[in-house]
Amino acid sequence: MDKATPKADIYKANLDRAAPLLAKIKDEGIGHFIDGKVVPAISGATFETTSPIDGAVLATVARGNAEDIDRAATAASLAFKSWRDMAPAMRRKLLHRLADAIEANADDIAVLECVDTGQAYRFMAKAALRAAENFRFFADKCTEARDGQSTPSDEHWNISTRVPIGPVGVITPWNTPFMLSTWKIAPALAAGCTVVHKPAEWSPITAQWLAKLAKEAGIPDGVLNTVHGFGEDAGKALTQHPAIKAIGFVGESSTGSAIMAQGAPTLKRVHFELGGKNPVIVFDDADLDRALDAVVFMIYSLNGERCTSSSRLLVQQSIAETFTAKLAARVRALKVGHPLDPATEIGPLIHERHLAKVCSYADIARQDGAIIAVGGKPYAGPGGGHYVEPTLVTGANQTMRVAQEEVFGPFLTVIPFRDETDAIEIANDVQYGLTGYVWTSDMGRALRVADALEAGMIWLNSENVRHLPTPFGGMKASGIGRDGGDYSFDFYMETKHVSLARGTHKIQRLGV
């Protein structure tokens, strides 16, 4: 369907597309995918996954434990050598086939992701295509993954190369699960690693699709394995397994700390993309119309359930009242509704526990003396699911919890600032350091602020626009390491130095 198709027709088509897919998934259930086969948990344990739209049970899911992780890690270990040694051009070909398969199934993946996570179709329609793009990008880098440097000295010819680290564990979140899993898995496979994937238990459906599509594309058995379950058993076992050489994780900062501790006895390499309390700083000389669009988009898109959301608006005092009034009008106009409706801008939150968490911060804001200018309570959405009103908090200062803690929902806190120095001080006064956004027409100031902000990624006069070759990651409690381009290979591969003597240097003689 093209842009001219009425939204009501798209909504109905989405419902019609989702119905048989969901019926099949509910009938078959969701098992682990290990060594090329769908298998139940060894213990026989299961759990139910439900839709945030109406609480309906979507499927019964295998609940993995240490035995299932060991089975998957063994499969990944046995498959590693042949995958590592496969000609890079062949790996590239297989990963392109997988990208083709993702594109061919993008509409099905999108509607399933909406029903499983509550994310709006307008965003999920593009997420599967971005997942295919992730595989294409890293597929084309297969042939350069082992590239190194030549650093000759007077007596030696020194070269470096990279080799895949081995089987790796990938633990992914529930907010945009299909796309974010490919963000980790694609570079790992391109590097020559094998993977054990542990998806978030709140959104398990599309992980099974990825594993099946990989097999259909010709990815050898054991190269990509999926084990479902909870963090305290399957996740913990994955981080502790001696055959798993590294863990890539996207999620909460506290969970990242636990993973570091669990992986310490086996000296796991870790890459963490963690939480954020990201500032968007709007100076009075900015293009205020564009800034307003970006402010709204970067906190209220994807239900605000994104690590890079700009959840703190720092606005210069001279324009704060006018800018905030325009912002409040936009927030009130946001459309909350069924995620399969293309008119919907905010769908239901992922889980009833998360809904309760997000709503609790409205009470916290009031207790601390802030004002709930818009929203702040559950929304009576279709199906009676986990809907929340998009929320705007004003009258806040940097000491308040709503200015310090990650809410991870459609929840924006406004904090006025005096000048450049004040803006930088407020922006950096949090434990996190993932992203920052700066709006000003003064490019000198833009660069000064970008240099001073304690964050891994800065966008100047822009919302978050991802470019795959660039480094993605945070500072402080927002993470360790970088994804993207060659930076991903630095994590999934070991650098090896080889020194070849010219045969002319003097060797010390002992015992002569």
From TrEMBL:
Name used for this protein in its record: Putative NAD-dependent aldehyde dehydrogenase family protein
Keyword NAD appears in the UniProt entry: yes
Transmembrane feature ranges: none
Chain segments annotated as coiled-coil in the UniProt record: none
Family listed: Belongs to the aldehyde dehydrogenase family.
Lineage of origin: Bacteria, Pseudomonadati, Pseudomonadota, Alphaproteobacteria, Hyphomicrobiales
InterPro entries given in the database record: Ald_DH/histidinol_DH, Ald_DH_C, Ald_DH_CS_GLU, Ald_DH_N, Aldehyde_DH_dom, DH_HpaE
A family per Pfam: Aldedh
